[in-house]
Amino acid sequence: MAYASSKLVQMVPSLQVGVVPSIWQYTSADSHATIDGAGYISDGYDKGIRAGDIVIAWSTGDANGKIHRCASVQAPADARSPGNTTTLSATLAS
Questions:
Q1: Domain boundaries, the chain
Q2: Cα 37 from Cα 6, distance rounded (Å)
């Protein structure tokens, strides 16, 4: 399967971005190894996920849950340039 944006839901927003992590929930048939793959969350930056955020993921493929940490968020230097439609991704780590 592939990443499903609608399945990534922010449960607890950060009170101080960069200091206190947000907590997210994600459910997928993909394995945790796949969920941890580079750039798996293809719209991470646009959804608001930031490095250090926590993602509680339930893998129906692995039949278990796991806590992941957002290791990095891809944000090109021109990400906020007018007319830029680049999708920015996030990478999780177990």
A1: 5-76+85-93
A2: 18
Distance between CA atoms of residues 74 and 40, nearest Å: 11
pTM across the whole model: 0.78
pLDDT in tens, 30-81: 998 898 888 888 888 888 888 889 999 999 988 899 998 888 887 655 555 5
